[in-house]
Amino acid sequence: MKLTLLWTVVILSLFFFGCSSDETAALPEAPSGAQVTGETVGETTGETSTAAEGILLRYRFQAGDRFLVEMKNEMIASAAGIEIPVTIAAFSVWTIDAVDANGVATITQQPRNITFLGRYPNGTAVYDSADGEEPEHPGWVMIKPQLEVAQLASYTFKVDPRGTVSDFQYSAESLAQGKRMVEENPAMEPMIAAQRSATEQDNSAFFFSELPEQAISVGGEWVLEKKDREVFGGMGSFHSTYTLGEKELQNGKEVVGMDVEIEIDLDFPEDAEYRIEVDEALCTGLFSLSDGYFLKWVQKMDRTTYFQLNGMEQEEPVKMTVTVTMAPLPAADAN
Fold first, then answer.
1. Is the CB of residue 267 less than 8 Å from the CB of residue 306?
2. What does the domain layout of the chain look like in residue ranges?
3. Top-tier CATH class for 5-329
């Protein structure tokens, strides 16, 4: 079955953005997997303290905290010489249910709403699941089920101070809704399976980057690698080089930035109906040393999908910018 343009850039793009580097491992101690290539320092005290010029990056969630998490994907896909800009924004609420003595947080995610804006040659499609008003667009029949699948994102998971995610579980409500959707439309089953495989396999829906075991000096680097990951029907490896930026104050809180260069190698079977090549993937992150979590991740990726049509190889280039932000919610905010 041909991988359609919408399939490529709507659903899977919400989960495949390469900055996450989390392995499910035993808690509370997580294996490092990180090679520190910049200058390092010795022992430090305090989860975000510094020794000499080193900074020890650690997540520090507090039980009862709630956050609004937005994943915004801005894409420009090219097909037959026509550029199609698409913007998708998925909003969810994270609740920190508990934090144990080792700093391992139990988190529940509940989807809030999803918005869509696509500017096509045959008209613009605008949608917000919060009001449910569907656009009168000929392509909506293809777009709608994919957005519905993206909303099946109610789950719980645990994350330790270094960013290792474990105990991932979809909610009973999400599983039941997915089952009902397949019963009503069997064609949705592969979409749901792809979404859950991507999320469960590599925790790609989370923007927890695994943090280095040791403190890192400003300008220092550490490397994270992933191998033998299943991506879009192929096998992939990821080599991410992180560089730590300067500390600064934002709104009275201490933050630190980082830049990430990602090398992605995807290998598809010879008889694959499509293949994807990633030309470039870069990330920037902003970590709050005061609060102990990422305030923002931005990834820019250029990739191309190749597929056969009428006996000839076709190309669908996609330029993508994924921005993930995390903002505290008032405890009384139930929405």
1. no
2. 5-329
3. mainly beta
